[in-house]
Amino acid sequence: MQATWLVFRREIGQYLGSPLAYLMGAAFLLLTGITFNNDLTLSIGNKPLEPALIPSLLASIMILFAPLLTMRLLAEEQREGTLELLLTAPISDSSIVIGKFLSAWAYFSILLALTLIYQVIAVSIAFPDISHVLGSYLGIWLYAGATLAIGTLFSATTENQILAAFLSMITLIVLYFGDAISQIVSNTQLADVMFNLTLRGHFMASFAIGILRAEDLVYYAGIIVIALFIAIQIVSSRRWR
Amino acid sequence: MNDRNTLQLTRGQIGQVGILLGSLGLIFAASSFLMNGFSTLTIVVLLVSVIGFGLWAVFLPDEFRAVLTGRQMRHSTAAILSTAILIGIVVAMYIIVQRANIVGDMTIDERFTLSAPSMELMDAVQRNSRDIQITAFYNAQEIEYREVDDQYFQLFEEASNGRLHVVYVDPDEQPALAAAYANALENGIYTFASFIEDDGTLSNTVPVPITGYHEQEISQRLAVLLAAGQFTVYFETGLDTLDPIANQQQGMSVLNNIMRQNGLITNAISLAELAASNSNIPTDASALIIAQPRRQMTAGEVAVLDEYLQRGGSVFIAADALLTDDLFMATDSVFNTYMWDHYGLRMSDMIVVDPASSGESQLSILSAQVFTNNDIGQNINIENQPDTAVQFHIARAIEVNDTPPVPNGRVIMSSPQSWGERDWNSLFQQNQFTFDSSQGDVRDQFTTVAWAYNEDTTSKVVLVGDGDFLTNGRVQSPQGNATLFLDSIGWMTGFTEKVEFEPRSYNATPLVFVGGQMLDTIAFFTIVVMPGSLLLIALAIWLRRSRQ
User: Fold this and answer.
1) Is the pTM of this model over 0.95?
2) Is the domain of B58 the same as that of B126?
């Protein structure tokens, strides 16, 4: 735990000390800000503010954002040869992987928390469904955790950051649009299975409409656990390969 | 040498595919076992798994042996197997949790929680002798919609204590089954509720149109289904009335079908035959429809009708203006006098001409004034919905006694500019109608639809001065014509009270007006200040690093 905390602190320090992370954050806030203002203008006298607007937008943005956030986590360590140093340090492989993953998730959480300002504005001028909003934020937070875990996994597989980002992006695209594959073959059972395997399927049909389902929590937690476990196995394999 | 290397590489690949097949097969077999028990699929996947591990053992025997002895293989195999076990555990947990269906409603107005009226309805479903099936049609492209609708279906399924079952059908995969629902499916209705009979067949199927207010819409249609078979409406056919089965323009099959789709039983009956055989209208008759009769009623027929009304029956009468010596409800006829004496309503000898509120001609009069003190008028002439108006073609004026023997009232009236034409010969034969007071024409606002209710006998009467609006050719143009008829039937039979559900109040308050200056301030803060602050921090860090 102590080791995980040390790795986490070192990584989050790198995020917060990097101008690139702030540039990404600025782009993130610009996009969400434009979306919020657009909904605000369309809603006046017409409809309530969309409670899951920002989380729904982030669900698609994370396909690009998660690989960018995680590509350097382990790939850079491998390329620069510092992973060997870490492996020889008195910390476990799981501490390395989990600490790095948690730092990426924490960075995303800070950005997500900044978008809560939109909800504060919404409360001051309207009557938004706050519990629905918070439910959808919880959903996108878990969703992001799953995408970042997948990014961490691919960052562990290669020392090339671009390749790691590319592989995780492809995987996330498949996991996001997976149900579209079944539409090509027009098979409902297959479509059902594919939809339930996709990241989108566990967000759009539950958190986004105001439902909290235990199966969605297990799904996202399961993806995080499995992806991180495989990443730990890959890092550990360097010891006996 | 090269050939040998190629051969070794291929064997290695097959062995790797083998271990992959074996591991995935184990996971799928475990999942299949959890979902379907020890099924054929489980056995097949398990066999694939065994074959996979077999291939691994045959094509990579050294590695297979090394699992037990070799360090590298021992590690890699342990990694693969532990990953497979972890995936298996997660999949098993997911399936268990999915089956438990643990759902929390996060909406402030509890959209995903059944309301008290719906829960009462589900109690009725549990008490009902037959199970209910909701059949919903979705193809592969509509899975996302199905997932959302499924949230609501599950609420009803759980509240029914196993008495309500949801069945999903893919119309592309089962076209024969979908064919039975083709008309409704073409009109965008994809959900149906039916009773399940003892032999497994479905009966009393009612469509469940879903437009976004899932709970209210499903509850209302389930109420309709539960009411199915409780109300029987008879069509009078002995007075040369509209044929409820004929599907031509002059038939009345559209309304008949709509009533049946709503769970009402419809039958034909002849007052003449009942009078001749000295019989009465059946006791199960919730209402009698006399649509555009073409002759007067005999004293015997009136007696049959009177007996029915005395025991609380309800009659819907659409008395048209026809140029005949044997006009139904002619001013001096037996039945017209009966209606005046008992209900304070009678047909006059005037046809309403309305220059101010009419369609293609001044004889095609539109509902100018509607009274909403009775259920019948509630859904007519709704503001900004022109299709909710009622249109009659050559309608007779109704006289309403203002000191009636029983409570009565008006539903629809013409405009104050209208007048009553008494020269029917000129109107029907030469299509000429001009106001002529010397001919007895009267300028007034005329009643074209009226109701009466005898509180002692509970009998109800709805009198309409037109019959054409009930025909297939006119009943849905405008839509208000069908509404007038169906709401009349609903009021007379009590069907409306039985199936009506008050709309749930949702806290979907539209965003009230926000001043332009405030909008600009919000936009400036969220689009400029917030991202700009991060850009400035990025710039500061970059400058500090570059100086170092």
Assistant:
1) no
2) no
